[in-house]
Amino acid sequence: MAKYRSSDKEGPGYVSKKCHGCYAYVPLDADVCPSCKARLGKVGAHGMAEKVTDWKGYFAFLVALAAFVIFCIYAFF
Fold first, then answer.
1. Does the model's pTM come out above 0.90?
2. Are 18 and 25 in contact (CB under 8 A)?
């Protein structure tokens, strides 16, 4: 679990989060893990950093798939 502190006003609050790739503790405001260079999201319920969705990768895959389908239609039909 990530390191936490207890506060009288807010209840338990985390002071760090844990990387989902290498399980290293990183500050709450970190966007990238300094150990493994993984992109980090907000801190989750158990102190683990959430994985960030790579929308550019999904878009590149769809463009490549469309290009492949167009090539197959052009080449074989």
1. no
2. yes
